[in-house]
Amino acid sequence: MASIIPSIPSKTRLSQLAQLSAKIFNNVYNPTGERTGNKILRKRLIGSTITGWYPHRIITLRKITDTFPGMKLVNQEEKLRLEEIAKRKKRGKGAPKKGQGKRASLGTKKQK
Known about the structure:
Elements: H1 11-24, H2 38-42, H3 47-53, H4 61-67, H5 76-90, H6 102-110
């Protein structure tokens, strides 16, 4: 009785099959398995979707005050921010002057 042994395809035949399969299924034939970045390049671009999500600023208070300085408009948010900074400085909690912070004082101690 002769036993039935399935024939094993050669390496060249397998590579031809992989190449044909890639062509049929619109994939990239990459026999070495190197990273090509095709997965990312195939994805749909999303930049326009993200920028389209946020509404466009048509006009701002700063543009109006720059265009018409005679109107003397006041930005309430900016005014409150400056008042808060003044209160903090009065209590000694404000930001240090340039060159007066922690890092600047560390450098002077090392030079002794």
